[in-house]
Amino acid sequence: MSIINNSKTDPNKILPITYPWARDYYKAGVANNWTPEEVSMQKDVEQWKAPGFLSSTERRLILWNLGFFSTAESLTANNIVLAVYNHVTNPEARQYLLRQGFEEAIHTDTFIYCCDTLGLDPDEIYNMYNTIPSIEEKDNFVVELTKSVFDPTFTTDGEENTRKFVRDLIGYYVIMEGIFFYAGFAMMLALKRQNKMIGIGEQFEYIMRDESLHLAFGCDLIKTIRDENPGIWTQAFQDEIIDLVKKAVDLEKRYAHDACPEGLLGINAEQFSQYVEFVADRRLERLDLPKVYGRKNPFAWMSQATDLSKEKNFFETRVTEYQTGGVLTWD
Questions:
Q1: Does residue 2 sit within a domain?
Q2: CATH code of the domain covering residue 52
Q3: How far, in Å, CA of 176 to CA of 72, rounded?
Q4: CA 201, 204, 206: angle at the middle one, nearest 5?
Q5: pLDDT tens across 124-155, in order?
Q6: How far apart, in whole angstroms, are the C-alpha atoms of residue 161 and residue 67?
Q7: What backbone phi and psi angles, to 5 degrees, belong to 296?
Q8: Residue 313 CA to chain centroid, in angstroms?
Q9: Which DSSP category does 173 fall into?
Q10: Is the N-terminal amide bond of 133 cis, ω within 30° of 0?
Q11: Is residue 201 part of a domain?
Q12: Residue 1 belongs to a domain
């Protein structure tokens, strides 16, 4: 039994569990359940409409991040449903992928909620992958990385095809969700720290926490496939992965400078770039590959968004901790 290349009917037999870590990710995802409508956007609307409250740089940054994430979440959902789920044949891993697909739908709904609430032009927001070069470059990079596994004739039989599949998983989990999302996360949470657009900031915190689980599952999936197919993990393939990560970092740094050219209060595009390099090193280490940049984390506060559990206090409409009803505690 292995995590890929089993009979397509075997996933119906979820017991006994072969990979307990996949089941654990599913249960963690369920415990983190949330929906965007639980977050009040009243103050965001007031701040967005108040003349001069947000600088032109801040407004641009908000629009660009909504534009990037609104289409990136759909791209990641397509990857799960149309490629990853088809080739990962283990039942408990598939159960988590179904949960992840649901979470991507929640994320997509978040940007609909934000656009509708703020009265934004959907044609502007949802076309930024065509109109903003640094967003288009990131999307095109991931689409190109994952192109082969969308071929209906593709299979994971044999080392070469398994290597292509792992390359797809790295493009999706490590590069898209693990690197391309993180400058945007830092920008939106930097605004929240200044008590600006708190509602959107809370939703980005929830999304970032979900994505941290997605990333961790993806890395464990990649490492399991590697351990079960050690012949794929050649030095040439490792070098290729490092090169892809370096290219991704360059694209994300370009986006950081484009989206935030004048900086925010106390934070500038160079620091966002350093943060992306720090994040990339952590992704490489997670895959047992050597660090490239050796950066320290310039935003230690970012870890609070994922390292602390979050629970919504519905009476005060603020974030404390979030769990599902059976374990919900009220402040």
A1: no
A2: 1.10.620.20
A3: 8
A4: 115
A5: 999 998 999 999 999 999 888 878 888 889 99
A6: 34
A7: -85, 155
A8: 25
A9: I
A10: no
A11: yes
A12: no
Number of domains in the chain: 1
3-state secondary structure 237-284: HHHHHHHHHHHHHHHHHHHHHHHCCCCECCECHHHHHHHHHHHHHHHH
The interaxial angle of helices 91-118 and 42-49, nearest 10 deg, is 40
Q: CB of 183 within 8 A of CB of 68? A: no
Which residue(s) pair with 264 in the sheet? 267
Residue 4 — φ and ψ, nearest 5°? -130, 170
Reported as a single tens digit per residue, the pLDDT across 255-276 is: 999 988 877 767 888 999 999 9
Rounded CA-CA distance 187/330 in Å is 30
CB of 302 within 8 A of CB of 185?
yes
> Which residue among the candidates 26, 96, 113, 182 is catalytic per the annotation?
113
Both structure tokens of 244: 């892809």
The closest alpha carbon to 200, from 184, 211, 213, belongs to 184
In a domain, 195, yes or no: yes
Say if residues 142 and 175 touch (Cβ distance below 8 Å). Answer: yes
Tokens for 95?
Answer: 């159960």
With CA atoms as reference, report the closest residue to 176 among 206, 132, 146. Answer: 146
- Could you give the residue ranges of the DSSP H alpha helices within 146-267? 159-169, 182-193, 198-228, 235-259
Q: How far apart are CA 170 and CA 215, in angstroms?
A: 10
CA distances to 19, 193, 284, 310 from 145, rounded to whole Å, are 27, 35, 17, 34
Instruction: Please say whether the beta carbons of 10 and 91 come within 8 A.
Output: yes
Range of the domain at 306: 10-327
Q: What are phi and psi of 267, to 5 degrees?
A: -135, 135
Cα 273 from Cα 169, distance rounded (Å): 24
172 noted as active-site residue: no
Q: Is the pLDDT of residue 310 over 50?
A: no
